[in-house]
What we know:
CATH architecture: Up-down Bundle
Order of helices and strands: HHHHHHH
CATH superfamily: Ferritin, core subunit, four-helix bundle
Distance between the termini: 25 Å
Shape: globular
Number of strands: 0
Structural class: mainly alpha
Number of helices: 7
CATH class: Mainly Alpha
CATH topology: Ferritin
Radius of gyration: 16 Å
Low-confidence stretches: none
Mean pLDDT: 97
Amino acid sequence: MQHSYELKCKTDPRWIEAVMADFDEFLIDHAANERKAAMLALSMVVHYPDKEHIVRDMTDLAMEEMAHFREVIKIMLKRGLQQKPDTTNFYIGSFMKALKKDPKNYLLDRLLMFSIVEKRGAERFGIVGETLAESKIKDFYQRLAAAEYRHFELFIELAYKYYDEQRVKKRLNELLDVEAQIVKQSPFIAAVH
Length: 193
C-alpha cells in the first residue's frame, strides 16, 4: 500500500471487557454493521456513477461485506440469536456530524471516514480474535481483521486517486483527531463501535 496512517488512540481495554461480557450482543451488532457496510458501498455506486474506480471497488466491497454478514448470521443462528431493529450508534453518528456536506468536500470526507472506521474495525476485530479461546469464531475474527485492514487501504487509496495529496493528508489528520475524541467519549458497550 502506498498511503498508510495510524489511528491517534488505541481502543481502551475496557471495550473488550464489555464485548466479552455480552458476546451475543456483540454478534448482533456486528451483523448489523456488516449489513450497513454493504448498503453503504452500494449507495456509493449509485451516488458516484461517473467514478469508475468507486463503482467497481464498491460493488466488490458490497459483495464481501454481505459474505461477512452471512458468516455472522450463521454464527448467530447456531447460538439461537436474532437480529434486532437498528439503533443509533454514538460513534458513527458523532463521526457523521463532523463531515463536510457540500458537494466539493463530501466524497473526500466519506472516503476518509470510511477508511478510519475500517481501520478501527480492523484493530477491534484483531483484539476480539486475540481474546477468544481457540475456535472457529476466533479464526473468523482473525480473518476479518485482515479483511477490514484491506478495506481501510481501499478507501484511503480511493481518496488519493480522486483528490490532491496535500488536501487528503490535511483532512485525514483533522478527521483522525475527531475520531480519537469520539473513541475517548464512547461508552464501553458490546458493539463494534
